[in-house]
Amino acid sequence: MIAGQDVSTVTSPLPRGVRRALDAMRANIGHAWRLTELAATAGVSGRTLQRQFLTFVGKTPRTVLREIGLECARRDLLQGTPGVKIMDVALRCGFPHFGRFSIAYRRRYGETPSQTLKRQEILTDALGATPSLYVPARDRPAVAFGPIEAAAENLAVAADIADDLVTALTRAGIAVATRSVAARYHLGGAIRGSGAQMHLTIRLIDTETGGQLWAHRADGVLRDDTTTTEHLAARIAAALQPCLRLAEIDRALRKPATGLGAQDLALRAMPGVLSLDAIGNARALELLERAMDQEPNHPLATALAAWAHVQRVVYHFTHAPQQERARSLELAHRARGLGADATVLAILGNALSLLNAFDTADLVTRKALAMDGGSAWAWSRGGWIDVYKGDPQSAIERFKIALDLAPHDPLAFNSMVGIGCALFIAGQYAEGAQWQERALAEHPSASWVHRTLCPAYVLAGQAPQASRSLGALRQHYPDLTVSEVQRGMPPLPPSQCELVVGALQEAGLPA
């Protein structure tokens, strides 16, 4: 049985009748399917189809149909197409009753459809406001991109999307080449289908290995409309970046250990910095010191090192916090004077905010978003700055934008932690604990999360969970005391720090 599996990914092993029914549901999402219709399409009796769904999918056909409709609505709302109306989305996805749709949507995704759409409007405005800023060409990966394949009647739309995509990629700091021989990667696109089934597919190919690295599909947004094509191109460029960054890291890791340049060493170090754990941090700093020995003013290596050193303070990786903080501050000041792209600026914003330089961190993060409105890292760091300033509502919006842009990014879990901390500040302790638990499920080695998870459980009145969380914290930090937590705690508002400290004391952490 495949109970609990996302219906959009259920493919096999399934009986032929179930596969036919699922295909029919997906092809006609807005249709009010009856069991008898589905059974006729599947070529089996209604009772047989019902039994097969329960056995192999773990759900009734009616439940699966509703989930497919919700997934369709979620995709449509996350695309944030200008002018979209929630009622139209609901009807298109098979929900004629708006109130019931809103309830089902919130139950599944933890927010209302209007909240999802509002967040996408904020992102759309940011993407549309991105100016044509100069982005340093240094170490930028080159992507070859040619015409988008399309039938004759769609060639004009395909050309518009291609032009807008080149602009969006360039704004995002990606060098676009016209010939594959000059590029590490090839980006290809095609418009397929017709009418309501027409869709755009974009694929990223590694020119060295020929392997497909990434794919993106956009449904129902292909219109001869300038605003729509610009918006679509900006979203594709934003979605591409995390994959391209991981591909560059993988490329650096595949190179022989001898003769690595500063950029290769910095890329090799990045996963360790992003891990936010002690072992990864230590390995990363070794690589970053080698990179800076080669090029003392290498922007990426310098910014990563600044962040890595202050991590050692905040996450209790060191017994010399003052020295680590001083080194981080020195590197952060150096990095500010170097030419940088949006990624480097977002990393620098991480370091500066943890160093309590909120105004400078905010300035740097805003500059990153001005360069690239689709930078998930910059949106996430903006969320943390809002947390530190005591603005939980704005923080949650920013964190969720980051998660929408890059749900599988290595730092996505940190946005979940951020949402948990924002909810803590808002006094929603139980919900905040749930988000931090989600973060730990994504990244179990981030045991420092228990510093705020345990207090959330204490303040929510959930003593057993608080005790379990404190036990996990002390297992990984056996000598940790309340005083050390205070010294290393991220710069939360003073009143919230007092709540955290008091709750940890109540839970039993030694003073």
Automatic annotation (TrEMBL):
Residues 19-119 form the HTH araC/xylS-type domain. The keyword Transcription applies. SMART domains: HTH_ARAC (SM00342). GO terms for molecular function: DNA-binding transcription factor activity; sequence-specific DNA binding. It holds the Pfam family HTH_18. TPR repeats lie at residues 376-409. The keyword DNA-binding applies. Keywords: DNA-binding, TPR repeat, Transcription, Transcription regulation. This is HTH araC/xylS-type domain-containing protein.
